[in-house]
Each structure stands twice: as structure tokens, then as C-alpha cells.
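Reagents: none. Just compute today. Tetraacyldisaccharide 4'-kinase.
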Amino acid sequence: MNKIEKSWYKPVGLINILLLPLSALFWLISGGRRVLFRLGIKSSYKASVPVMIVGNIGIGGNGKTPFVLWLVPYLQSLGLKVAVISRGYGAKPPHTPYQVSNDSTAQLAGDEPLLIFKRLGCDVVIGADRQASIEYLIENNEPDIIVSDDGLQHYQLDRDIEVCIVDNERRFGNGLLLPAGPLRELPKRLKTVDLTVFNGSIKEDGYSLNTTGIFSVKTGLPVSDFTPKGIAVSAIGNPARFEKSLKANGVNIIQSRHFADHHMFTEQDFDTVSKNNLFMTEKDAVKCQSFAKDNWYFLRVDAVPSEGLITKLHNLLDKKGIITHGV
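Predicted 3D structure written out:
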């Protein structure tokens, strides 16, 4: 995390003040764009199946992917065939739309889409053109509902349900728009979404992130016989949360190595780690499996929503006509 990003989660200082003119420009451009869509001057694409967007108003480390990993099976439990679309940040697919498969790598599909596919086995399609991705899925996979992993600010895409994930610990940082702060939209945007979900809260509108074991990066299988001491490696938006979870699971972190969010790891990134045990997130592990050593591990976490959140989501799906009453 660079100096500017660190300043977002501290009291407003000189760096933030100097960047305020750029934040004002960002507000004018993004706000003007929203007005054009609201007035119908710019048109949105309406899919023939319901679309649920799971996004946020800030950038990085809000816990969106764990929620999607819980949401898809929940929707499936209601009898819905679910597909996922994603921009595929950092991916370099041979074409788009690109459907993630067993042959996909993180380089082709992106880390989060590959993780979602590996965990859930559902249809996952990536591409910057979300309309093309949706039309591909409708033609080839016939889903009942499409979950968009991120895209809350992608107003070219009409949506039936908007879910905004908020980090209950960091919240909105200094409350400023990019680049003076971490926000893409101001907190008042939450008044217009269908559901605001707080990551790290066990209250009515939240979910906790529970660790469900240490796994081998190389095999993807759970492990129990390992030395709980080594180097924590991460390329995520909030490495502090990950390292806190490692320590809570008894891992003695002797060194931390942080990379930019979505960094596409290569074997050379680990040339200096000697023979130490490595601990990483599941999102990072999918990028390292092909060259992982036997003593590389990842910490698996799962979202556990409150009963109140599940009830709210169920009622919302019912209200929108996505499920029939009583399902």
C-alpha cells in the first residue's frame, strides 16, 4: 500500500488536501455521467433475466468475493440456476466474452473469477463488455439469475438488485472521493441500493468471515500437519485483516510481503523466501498453484451471514419476483 492509499484511512492530512481538486474533478465527471443515465440521455442495457450486482462504493479489500462465494450457493438452494459475470481485472483471455473452465489459469481468467469457478463450479464469464457477457450466458447457459461480481458504478448495465458491501472496520476511510480518499461514490449512495451488507458485523445486516482451515496451495487439500510459522504473502486490498486471521489461527508471522491488489504472481516473486513456510489467501493461491512448493499454504475463509441478513435477502428476492413466495 503506497503513501496515498495509507492516508485514506487516517485523519485528513496534507496529502489529501492537495488531492482535493482532483477529487472534485472526479465528482463532476462521475456525477455528470450518473445524471445522463438518470435522465435517459445515455441508455442502459436491460437483460432478459434478473441481474444482481454485488459491489461497493470504495476500492479494495471490502470482502466482496467471500460474500459472492456464499451468495451463489444460497441462490442455488432456492432452485435458481446461477451464473456469474466479472470484468476479470488483470486477466488476459484469448477473447471476450471468456467462459472460465477447468483449463483456465489466473492469467487467462483473473484471480477472483478463477477462485469463484474453482470453489463453486458455476458458470463464470469475464469481459469488460458486461452486456456481451450476459448475452453469451443467456444463449449458452440459460441462467435464471446472473450475479455481477462488482460493477455497482457500471450504469450501462441495468440491474434488478444492488448489493453494496461495506468493510465494517475501515468503513469509508476519510470519507473523500478518489484520489484524496478511497471512495468511488459518496456514502449517501447507500440510500439508493437495495441492500447494504457489512463485512465483519454479526448484526442484522452483516456477515462474519470465519476461517475454515489451512490448505495446501499445491494440492488444494486441507492440511493439519504443518509448522505454524512462516512468511505471510498477500496481493489483496486489506492485508492487515488477512494477517490478523493468520495470527488468530496460531500462525507465527516472521515476515510480511505485500504486493499490489490482483498482482499476478510469478515464480520469481518468491526467489528470496528461501525454504520458509509461506501463508497466503485463497485468492492468491489460485495464481501460485502451478509452481507452489509443498510448504506453501493458504487460509480459507467463508462468509457466515446473520439470520437477519438472510431474511432480508430472501424477502428482497421475493419482492422482486425472482423467487415465488414461500420458497
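The CA atoms of residues 232 and 279 lie 5 Å apart.
Action item: order primers for follow-up constructs.
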